[in-house]
UniProtKB/TrEMBL annotation:
Lineage: Eukaryota, Metazoa, Chordata, Craniata, Vertebrata
Domain of life: Eukaryota
Family statement: Belongs to the CSC1 (TC 1.A.17) family.
Organism, as annotated: Anas platyrhynchos (Mallard)
Designated name of the protein: Transmembrane protein 63B
Record-annotated CSC1/OSCA1-like cytosolic domain positions: 201-383
Subcellular locations according to the entry: Membrane
Length: 722
């Protein structure tokens, strides 16, 4: 039986956590068993304009506009009047300089926005080449219908397999890789990490004896290392419950003060229902009686004070076997760090014994893991108690459950199909209401489009990372990997889940069906669908980010759970959160990867990708300045995003290799050239990421100030170890 190619199922705009383009994920092509019909009445789009839902004149003039034409300012006046009070107001209220953002939002916000600007510059260059050169080359073919408005004529599928112009596409794919690396090197060369002097002179030590005294730790370093002066050594204790009790005590204190002041003004006592959502209850039932507010909060405060004092007395009995040690200068700090992390042998154990002292044995120095201390604002102090074997088991269980769930339910469409097998939506059909019966399946698809990435996001949260940087970095990598499968790879191949993907990959008939399956990637309508996805990301996704509906829903839930007016006021005063850089990077890089992957095979996607990045930059700049709290992270989250950018042109090379292999065979010159370039690129990337080689060919170009001693950055930062 033949395999029909295409995608099936177009969902509605979705929203998720406070991350970019989350709403637009619902417009990702959700493939279902490689069906051949497109959304709607099952009829493929007639022509390029119909496929994109745009006026034909717009598309005819797109090439000339993008390459060089400059419209007069008066042409924008109607649009500005239309946008007045919307995006235009946001644009006018944006902070003008990065210095303003750095002062209010921190250095990480500046690095994030600089990253976006370099991506915008990269897309401008790629857009000029794709729309100005690749698009006319695709138009010059005659393989598809000779219709000026046909979307298929804009794709690589319009060229014959023997056309020598296909060398242009392969060369441009390699050129895009070079442009991407150059753009990211410029970005990283401008990044400056200004850490507090105290942080650069402080080491975080894990694996210390739980009964170690600060004086012994000081004595060890001063004996083992010449000219070493330890200013302070602070052991770590389990303070998770202590922090919780202190936060609850402060809430009770604020509630008591609020109602005391209110009674002084109105001279009448206030009554409250102390149960969650008590202010929403309109009837008095047993167990939900109202109590006098001042008396309630006074008793609660006294109880929490007593619990806090008792817990504080027990804290010294809960050592964690960790310590923060501060030295007198950065040089000795670097020497000690190098001594604990340098490789001194050629065997499997790549760590030598550090310098010893009279206290080495009692302190268990041979078991120490030493790294630079994270910034105090970067640490989750309440998570330090979850460490070692317990942390790894917790992380393993969470990720195994996540993998099993997403292995079979990778896309929203497959979830709906699975639910239909069990007649979950059958009761809705019995209502015989056409509005409900037609809207309910779409609503479910919309919900699952937002839910799946959110599950991946929260899995990193429940892993209980020690630092915010570690949590954001894990979120970025996991969300990006999942989104690439959900949005790009599986729909392009006409598959619906990882389960189907691996069954197809390891099937005995893989080679027999591979050619037909890979042809799914290069259908003209497939490119049109991804153009629609990028357009939806640009307008719907960015609009959802600007509205911050997930934050609004969380705010409403917290208001409902508040027990009194005092707690509702506390919720209103503390409704802002830190910007989630990890999730934002993942969603933004997902759209960028889609654009770069199809920039050669479907070049008309690039202008819309540029539109997405421009709007994304404006929205994030506004939100960072006005809506979110400043965050203090390390450079690993930003360098990880740079690595993900390089994955986009590599996928573009993969797409061209598939096309060339399907059309001309693997031994064709264009296929072999693409294959060699792809293999060399992957080898260089792996050697750089895993072993640190080819630094001058990488996308990283940090300006490092040379010190007297080469320092080694430990991998311990943000990740618990044994």
């Amino acid at each position: 039986m033949g395999i029909r190619c295409g995608s099936q199922g177009l969902s509605c705009p979705a929203e998720g956590s406070s991350t970019g383009s989350r709403a637009a994920a619902s417009f990702a092509p959700q493939a279902s068993a490689c069906a051949g019909a497109w959304p709607g009445a099952g009829v493929p789009p007639q022509g390029m304009a119909a496929a994109l839902g745009l006026d034909p004149g717009v598309l005819c003039g797109l090439q000339g506009w993008f390459v060089g034409s400059q419209p007069s300012p008066s042409a924008f006046l109607p649009a500005l009047r239309l946008l007045e009070g919307g995006f235009f107001t946001v644009f006018l209220s944006l902070p003008g300089r990065d210095d303003e953002i750095r002062d209010k939002c921190g250095g990480d916000a500046v690095h994030y926005l600089s990253f976006q600007r370099h991506i915008i510059g990269l897309l401008v260059a790629v857009g000029v080449l794709s729309v100005g050169i690749v698009l006319p080359v695709n138009f010059s073919g005659d393989l598809l219908e000779n219709n000026a408005y046909s979307f298929g004529r804009t794709t690589i599928a319009n060229l014959n397999s023997g056309n020598n112009l296909l060398w242009l596409h392969t060369s441009f794919a390699f050129l895009y890789l070079l442009l991407t690396v150059y753009s990211m090197r410029r970005h990283t060369s401008k990044m400056r990490y200004k850490e507090d002097d105290l942080v650069k002179r402080t080491l975080f030590i894990n694996g210390i004896s739980k009964y170690a005294e600060p004086e012994k730790i000081k004595k060890h370093f001063e004996e083992a290392y010449a000219n070493c002066t330890v200013l302070e050594a602070r052991p770590c204790y389990d303070v998770a419950r202590l922090m919780f009790l202190d936060a609850e005590r402060k809430k009770a204190e604020r509630g008591r003060i609020y109602f005391t002041n209110l009674q002084g003004k109105e001279n009448t006592p206030s009554m409250i229902n102390p149960k969650p959502c008590g202010h929403l209850c309109c009837c008095v039932i047993r167990g939900c009686e109202e109590v006098e507010a001042i008396e309630y909060y006074t008793k609660l405060e006294e109880k929490l004070k007593d619990d806090y004092k008792r817990e504080k007395e027990k804290v010294n009995e809960k050592p964690l076997g960790m310590a923060f040690v501060t030295f007198h200068n950065e040089t000795i700090t670097a020497i000690i760090l190098k001594d604990f992390n340098a490789c001194k042998c050629q065997g499997c154990a790549c760590r030598g014994e550090p310098k010893a002292s009279s206290c080495s044995e009692s302190l268990h120095v041979s078991n120490w893991t030493v790294s630079y201390a994270p910034d105090p604002q970067n640490i989750y102090w309440e998570h330090l108690s979850i460490r070692g074997f317990i942390w790894w088991i917790r992380c393993l269980v969470i990720n195994v459950v996540l993998f099993i769930l997403l292995f079979f339910l990778t896309t929203p469409a497959i979830i709906i199909t699975t639910m239909d097998k069990f007649n979950v939506t059958k009761p809705v059909e019995y209502l015989n209401n056409p509005i409900i019966t037609q809207f309910f399946p779409t609503l479910l698809l919309w919900c699952f489009s937002a839910l799946l990435p959110t599950i991946v996001y929260y899995s990193a949260f429940f892993e209980a990372h020690w630092t915010r940087s570690g949590e954001n970095r894990t979120t970025m990598h996991k969300c990006y990997t999942f989104l690439i499968f959900m949005v790009l790879l599986l729909p392009s191949l006409g598959l619906s889940s990882l389960d189907v993907f691996f069954r197809w990959l390891f099937d005995k008939k893989f080679l027999a069906e591979a050619t037909v399956r890979f042809e799914c990637v290069f259908l003209p309508d497939n490119g049109a669908f991804f153009v629609n996805y990028v357009i939806a990301s640009a307008f719907i996704g960015n609009a959802m980010d600007l509205l911050r509906i997930p934050g609004l829903l969380m705010y409403m839930i917290r208001l409902c759970l508040a027990r009194s007016a005092a707690e509702r006021r506390n919720v209103k005063r503390h409704q802002a959160y830190e910007f989630q850089f990890g999730a934002a990077y993942a969603w933004m890089m997902c759209v960028f990867t889609v654009v770069m992957t199809y920039s050669i095979t479907c070049p008309i996607i690039v202008p819309f990708g540029l539109m997405y990045m421009l709007l994304k930059h404006l929205v994030d700049r506004y939100n960072l300045y006005y809506a979110y709290l400043p965050a203090k992270l390390d450079k690993k989250i930003h360098s990880g995003a740079v690595n993900q950018v390089v994955a986009a042109p590599i996928l573009c090379l993969f797409w061209l290799l598939f096309f060339s292999t399907v059309r001309t065979g693997f031994l064709a010159p264009t296929s072999m050239f693409t294959f060699v370039v792809l293999v060399i690129t992957i080898v260089i990337c792996l050697c750089h990421v895993c072993f640190g080689h080819f630094k001058y060919l990488s996308a990283h170009n940090y300006k490092i100030e040379h010190t007297e001693v080469d320092t080694i950055e430990s991998r311990q930062n943000g990740r618990p170890c044994h």
